[in-house]
Give the backbone structure.
Amino acid sequence: MNRVVAAAIAAAFAVPVMAQDKPAAAPPPSWQQGKPAALQESTLHPFAPHLTGRPAKDLPVDTLKVPAGFKVEVWADGIPEARSLALGDKGTVFVSNRNAKSVYAVLDKGGKREVKTLFTGLDAPNGIAFNKGTLYVAERGRITRHDGIEGKLDSPGEGKVVVDNLDPSRAAGHFWKFLAMGPDGKLYFNIGAPGNIVMPNYTQASIMRVDPANGVLETVARGVRNSVGFDWHPKTKELWFTNHGRDWLGDNSPNDTLHRVAAKTVPNFGYPFCHQGDTLDPEYGKNRSCAEFAKPALKLGAHIAPLGMRFYTGKMFPAEYQNNAFIAMHGSWNRTTKQGYNVMRVTFDEKGQPKMQPFVTGFMTDEKADPPMWGRPVDLLVMKDGSMLFSDDYNGIIYRVTYSK
Amino acid sequence: MAADSAVCVACHGPDGNSVNPAVPSLAAQPAQFLSTSLYMFREGNRKDPQMSPMAKGLSNADLNELGAYFSKQKAAPPRHKSSVENAAAGPGLAKKFNCSQCHGPALLGQQHIPRLAGQQYEYLGVQLRGFKAGTRADIDGNMTSAAQALTDKDIEVLVDYLAGLVAQ
């Protein structure tokens, strides 16, 4: 009997696993999965966020750099593991996290920020989206809606379920979600891969959407290892998203990627067979060809961990920033020389080809140190006045970028 | 500070150097490990009849201050004496079972990962057996997974070795 079937049967009937199959009792965490024998002694490890947050006054915030005319400052601290951001109609900034299981509302009161805890004890509520008075929250297994949320921030109550049972396996994997409301009125979210490099089932390694009116699910893109950021181009209305490449293939391979989903297509971007559009996986890529898969729009660098991605349509930044994209890079752990930890700007040429340059830098202090950085950007949010917020889950801080001539 | 470290040292010993084999030393532990542990007690991820109520009323700022304070205290020389055989076998086991991979070559801990060198004997044993049984809370499952490879004898040797190891 092969090992996978044996493990599945053991799990299904909850019989004790035989001694020879012992490792199945507690598999390594997904970040360890797929580590080749040659790297067994590698000391690379993911960086845990400071779950209690760190006060901005203790951090070298004044060393952050932005282009001439721009300014970056702390907008709010004390929001543990601040990750995804969403903006309410009345100006409430909603913030969610993953390990800390919470959703917060931040109110701007005359230059001071007041933080209210809306929900606690949720199951990795990484995804939040706001639309027409309703806050949607995506946990590992379900999406809920909270209608009229800005009128009941002090007693938000229970939400209503939009869709449930998105995580039937309850196993390790990239199952926290990014969530966004599409121009078609449907909620878009990712279901990541069940490990670093593992054959996904038919709902995994995908971007999906659900119609909040009836709960019907559709697949939008396949072969996507883990996307934790997407947005729609303001002109073309096409979906663009960031994607994390696999780990343990070395410092420079494969690239993390930026993708475009052309209208009326359901592309497959290759995971687990083909990475970055042109590199076959050493195990799953045998007897396959990258020619059968859609290509990324841009290679972003290896292990730079692109998370939030938003198009800029505000009025504060100079005109050439209109319809540019910004990408928040969480930065690498699976690389001996670290990179990332920046907010990047993506411009598009007349043919729509993207090109990337740094926008906010300075979180990395020593590319060889452990940890190499003091902060990690996660998500972005363009405010009504055209300024841009970005979150940092390592410290529980939200920063604000402004421009003046 | 708002949170009183004097309350902690009543059990954890002077400067956080425990004199009770069942109670862990806090001195010279990484600050992030201490604040994360307190966070896990407060939030109920990690449960203990003494620590859970202690952590209950503390704010994030309290946890950060306590973590910073005890991380700056010097580790006292271990009171535990390892057996000669276990002291000789320990380094090989710590490498074989990947302890030093995350806890560092001198097992002093880093970031959210604790110092093992010179930690209390009984405490270490309870933690490792808890990880092996899947009952000890774990940020990402890494320790639970790592502990599966340990036999009861391995745990005995490792704990005796680590508890007597000078933190340096």
Q: What stands out?
A: Chain B touches chain A at residues 32, 35-36, 38-39, 43, 60-61, 63-64, 67, 101-102, 110-112, 134, 139-142, 144-145, 147-149 (CB under 8 Å). The CA atoms of residues 31 and 68 of chain B lie 5 Å apart.
